[in-house]
Structure formats: structure tokens, C-alpha cells
Amino acid sequence: MIKIDEAFIEKVSQQAKATARRRMNYNFHHHDSDTLQRMLNAMEPDTYIRPHKHELPDKSEAFFCLRGRILVVEFDDKGNISDYIVLDAAQGNFGCEIEPRSWHSIISLESGSVAYEVKDGPYDPAVDKHFATWAPPEGHPNALEFNKEILRKLQIK
Fold it and tell me: Does domain 6-154 have CATH number 2.60.120.10?
């Protein structure tokens, strides 16, 4: 049994803080070929997850906030925000499910934020994500500004 308690979450969170990408996954599934992918996703506010979708093969994805505050945003094909939720257990917003073929991104709103993520498998990095051409790639100088613009549009601090 793997116990997902405060000490375990803190360990993964500290690992995220120590990485250049400012996020860290802890995978519960044992193989990329597993048909259900389950992981903790620890992330800091200064990380960037480029908007993407899962298609060909289509995959659903769900996020549950275990600690902190996490913004999950869906976009239309042109990059306009179509829906969003701030995951925050203290406010009663525990999680969300993303349908296949939906452009989406995640923004950590608080240091130490950790989500439990569930996604259809198997995982093949060559086809897992289709990245939005209307958003900067990871590592681009404008990547964090892209996140800040989303927060401004939604009036989220």
C-alpha cells in the first residue's frame, strides 16, 4: 500500500521545487503500457504546462486537488478560454475531468500545490500530447507570460 499522506505529498512537492521545470510527477502505475496512468503531479506557480490535447488515440484525463490551488483551463481551437475551474478543496472544488480532444492546461496558483492525476493509457510520448500551435513551447521566454495573461483574463490571483 502506498499511503498518500502529508509527508508523502511534501516529499514530492520538495522534489518539484528542486527541478528546473518546477514540477514533478510520482507515478503509481508501473509501466508506460498500463491502460490506466495514475500519478501525483506536484507543481509550483512558476512552471508552465503548454496547452495540449489527447487525441489519436483519444484519452480522458482527470485532476483532483490534494493540496494548494490549481487552475485547470480548457480552450477552443483558436486558443480562446472556453471553460475553467480553480481546484481548491477548501472551496469545495475538488476535481475535474477533461474530455478527449479538449485543449487544456494547468496553472499552479500556490506553492506546494499537488494534484492526483488519472489518465487513460498506455503512455507513448510520441503521440500522447498534441501541443497547441497558438501557445509558446515549454522553455520559451514568453511561456510564463502566457500563464499570466490567462490569470489576468480570468481575474485570478
Answer: yes
